[in-house]
Amino acid sequence: MPAFDKKRLRREIEADRRNAQRDKVRELRARIQLARLERKAKVSAIRSQCAVAREKLRALCLTRRERAALEGARLIEQRKAELGEEQALEKLVRSADRRGHKGGVRSTAAERASESDDEVRANIPRELVAAFDKNRRYIKGTPRKTRTEAFLQWAEENPAEIWALQNEQAEREIRAMVREHNRHARAVGAAELDDVPF
Fold first, then answer.
1. Measured in whole angstroms, how far is the alpha carbon of residue 98 from the centre of its chain?
2. Which SS3 state, helix, strand or coil, does residue 2 take?
3. Of the ranges 65-79, 110-124, 137-151, 176-190, which one carries the lowest mean pLDDT score?
């Protein structure tokens, strides 16, 4: 029976331990590499989702902008028709008063000229309120025209400015929706990346 060789046994044990450690390090490196690849794939997927969501938001906002422009044009036409009817009615009232008929409610020239901002806001479409607020100090009533009529006439004569204000509003809404989407995507992405083992 060969003699028991302690040195040789120690060397073999050390060699086995080194091999086991080397194998463990290789396995850990492989797992880290795999985790990195998975993280890269997830980040890439999130970026693609964000790009698709941005495109959808842009398309939605473009549709809303076009709808707002059409609605604004329709409302302006409707207000013009109402204004025409109102002016015709006012003309009838004036002619009836000149002939000596009594009754009916008439506003004085001072009342028409001093129509308040709140009254004008109540009389115009909601889509035009921002334009009125921006230009209200320039909108003046006259003895023959209320401030509401003066503003609607101004809106009819300045559709580009109305369009620009509505466009700014739409852009602000787009930016707010994109910020909200990005916040949500970051929250979802952070939760997914917490699973990465490094």
1. 54
2. coil
3. 110-124
DSSP annotation of 4 reads P
Closest to 162 measured CA to CA, from 63, 73, 74, 58: 73
Task: Yes or no: say if 61 and 174 are a contact pair by the CB < 8 Å rule.
Answer: yes
pTM exceeding the 0.70 threshold for the entire prediction? no
Sequence letter at residue 44: S
Q: What is the DSSP letter of 102?
A: -
d(CA 163, CA 70): 10
Angle between helices 6-98 and 147-157 (to 10 degrees): 120
Asked if 152 contacts 76 with a C-beta cutoff of 8 angstroms, the reply is yes
pLDDT bracket for residue 1 (50, 70, 90): very low
Output the pLDDT for position 197.
54
What value does the mean pLDDT take over residues 1-6?
65
**Contact (Cβ atoms closer than 8 angstroms) between residue 46 and residue 182:** no
* Distance (Å, whole) CA 146 – CA 27: 83
C-alpha distances in Å from residue 190, one per residue of 40, 138, 183, 185: 13, 52, 11, 8
Task: Over range 144-166, report the average pLDDT.
Answer: 89
Whether 128 and 75 have beta carbons less than 8 Å apart is answered as: yes
